[in-house]
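Operator note (shift B, R.M.): manual run for 4-hydroxy-tetrahydrodipicolinate synthase requested after the automated queue skipped it. Running by hand, logging everything below so the morning shift can see what happened. Input copied straight from the record, untouched. If output looks odd, do not overwrite the archive copy; leave it for review.
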Amino acid sequence: MFRGSMVAMATPMLDDGALDETALARLVEFHIENGTDAIVAVGTTGESATLDYDEHCYVMRRVVEMAAGRITVIGGTGANSTWEAVKLTRCAMEGGCDAALLVTPYYNKPTQEGLYRHFLTVADEVPIPQILYNVPGRTAVDLLPDTVERLASVSNIVGIKEASGNVQRTEDILERCGDRIDVFCGEDAKNLALMLAGAKGCISVTANVAPRLMHEMCAAALAGDRAEAERIDALLAALHKALFVETNPIPVKWALQQMGLIGPGIRLPMTPLSDQHHETVRQALKLAEIL
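Run finished. Output pasted below as returned.
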């Protein structure tokens, strides 16, 4: 159902942290013009943790309106409260999103049974297609392959963004349930390897600044053209690394600002990119022929 380069889009903000709708529209057009296959609105890169409920719903709805059917829109609707996740997922559905991306409940560290019941409850309550999202480095909880396999039988759970950084883990999920749900890479440095192994695409930070190259790399990988995919990925390798020199989305928002696409706004507790990393990110943008 969902394929290729799906951008985990940054949420542009004004200097005071307020939403910047002009820049939001600019980003949506930028991705449509450059071949991005889907937009994830208000995921981790979209600073979902610091948008309140009303803002969260508003941004998802506005991205759908701005996209106007020209690109798939996936709403980031995960929460550490199951019923908040239900409300956000319902908001995504009612706002016109094509699917929802649900991160594992963070901080409260549920058991595997708790994770299973959490995702099952959201899927039962809201019929929109749903993509699981496992990123233990940020949530302190790991959605294990056994639990993914249990959830793969739920009709509207259609995929998983696996961002554990463990290639063997992703290959295990592909082997167990790749015929029932789609697997998407959630770590840019491993996108190519995992798509060649059977992943259907990636949900990418790098695609914020290099959407055309990311789309072309994914298309080549999904077509089995290893040589072309490797050639493009080599151009992106420095970016994959540089965009994580500080916590995401700090570097990518700075990069987007250098490209003239957004202003410097970012919400506390995130802070602007440290001066010491400016040249590293700038050189990675130059290597990818973006600046």
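Quick read of the result: Residues 226-242 form the longest helix (17 residues). The first strand starts at residue 4 and ends at 8.
Leaving this for review. - R.M.
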